Amino acid sequence: MSSHKSEVRNEAWSELLKVAKPDSRFHYNFAEFIADFDGSDRATAMFLEHSVFKSADPIFITPDNCLEELRYETLLAGKKILMTTYGIRRGFWLLDPQEIDSKFLMYASTLDGMEKFGKHLSLRDIQESKLQISAMVTGTGAINMEGVRFGKGHGYFDLEWAMLYSVGAIQTTTAAVAFVHECQLLHQDLKPEVFDTVCDLVITNKRIIELALGKAQKPKVGVVWDLLADGMLEDIPPLQELKQMKITI
Fold first, then answer.
1. Per-residue pLDDT, 1
2. Is residue 23 a part of any domain in this protein?
3. pTM of this prediction?
4. Would 24 be classed as within a structural domain?
5. 125: which residues sit within 8 A by CB, 6+ positions away?
6. How far apart are CA 210 and CA 82, in angstroms?
7. d(CA 227, CA 229)
8. pLDDT tens readout for residues 30-46
9. Which are the contacts of 96, defined by CB distance < 8 A and separation ≥ 6?
């Protein structure tokens, strides 16, 4: 299955290269980052008018390049954002626009600014505060018409989902939303893994594809420790924290 995933992912990336915006650190190495793309501003504008966005607060948004404008618009709308650092290595951060000077909201929505203006939350903090995330938004490398994603290959969003699910911050009915360019849409029939978070909404530069809101397959097992890639537990402190918490799903 992993070799098939790589083949599908590489096919989508070859098309994405035509519309992607390079990253200052990673150029066009899509194995290292989720790229911004031509028309992501239109995707953002469409999602801002959707009921999922309008009712979501706080909202989890990944640190992907294609979501930077969405993060800014979310703060501008007065909504809190929970997000992670690159690779989840420094964990979860909560951005509260009520605590940020409006002139810094754009900077706060970036990877460089989020830690300056956000508040670090451990998984125990999230659990004890009973934080409830209304929607989870991610970029991805490719996605099919049933909402099965293929990201960079690291599985970060699935880990974020699993960790937040484990501490009660989300449920299987929480909406999962993916932002992609039309060229990243796949038409293959793909079977999700047990740990895959299938998306309910797919937002492209041209349209919103609504699947079964709140009914797409979501993992009910938390982190599948035996299936973590080598070195992932050692590299991601929140995973270490969760393991020490010994939560039983």
1. 43
2. no
3. 0.91
4. no
5. none
6. 24
7. 6
8. 777 889 999 999 999 99
9. 80, 119
